[in-house]
Predict the structure.
Amino acid sequence: MTVAGEDSELQLLIPANDVDGPELSIVIPSLNEEITIAQFVDWCHEGLRNANVKGEILIIDSSTDSTAEIALSKGARVLKSPKRGLGRAYIDAIPFIRGDYVLMGDADCTYDFRNLQPFVQNFRAGFEYVMGSRFRGYIEPGSMPVLHQYLGTPVTTWLLNFLNGTWFSDIHCGMRGITRDALQRMDLHSQSWEYASEMILKSIHMGLRTVEVPVRFLKDQEGRFSHHKRAGWFSPWHAAWINLKAMFIYGADFFLYRPGFLLLALGLMLTLPMTFGPVAIGPVTFSLYWMLLGLMLSVLGLHGIYVGSLSRILFDYQGERTRRWLRRFSYTRSVILSVLAVLIGVALVAPLVYRYLSYGLRLPGNGFPENHLAVTGLVFLVFGFMNFTFTLVLHAAAVNVKHNR
């Protein structure tokens, strides 16, 4: 049986022995996997029986070989889709998923789908995101390139954990589960390998109840080559780069928010103590040039805090962070604070302007206190204007995010 999707490029093939009302959907992209697809579907059926769960197998196929026909004959649903990337395959599949729980993986028999119990048990226990871990399970010798096993995966996993305060042990594991509701709310955008990082980071932003389970990772079967090998030597490096890109984009606040506070504190420490003149500490005299450095750091710090706050709003799925920031920066209070900061800044800069005019449009030398007052005044002016513009964008972003949510 064939069913056309709303996307005219998608076509769903339904096997004769289709399953009604599945609890679990095994959703697998495939590209020219005729060597392994029959065994893989058999493994899935065995895994469903072992886990005592009613499930469907949905293959998103972009093959030019007989992968689709073999999978269909084995009792899997097949969604025929153009070749448009690994992440896009999952996006295409979402409208066709029927189970309450979704299990993802590869069709190459490298992940052992005969053991699905840990995923099913944790789903039934209330977990929304069940992440597989090869490092906590079993990695067959020769199944993973040495560079990936001992450098690429551990380093990027550590980086993600460091950025987000999480505890994952294998962020690139392809065998992972998520509830259908969470997957729909997640609104994936990644078209290729970087979907893996996007999923993990969005699961963190969404506050999904998460657990990690051990999985078995096996070698490629004889005659079968991984997609990285098929694509050439550059493919793994490209995959690593776009995964890092996803990690940085969806974790942007880490590079902005906390570092912003550090830079702002350093900047104010270099600026405010010298408001009325140079400050000597031992043999070192801190004067106007140090104040200008402090001004630059203060501006960078404020910028990081404000932009980092906006990035948190954009990934606020529950709405609590948005409400918190709107309380902190209520429009009236924030505008009044901005106006006061600008007025203080103008008052501190005014003496230097007066002396500039008095000197025939020439600035006085470094020894005049008006110079120091003016630099501090510039800090207040920058704060006032940036705080006002941030308040406007914050309230606009909050309205837009609430609408999208």
In short: The chain has two domains: 2-250, 252-404. The two ends are 36 Å apart (CA to CA).
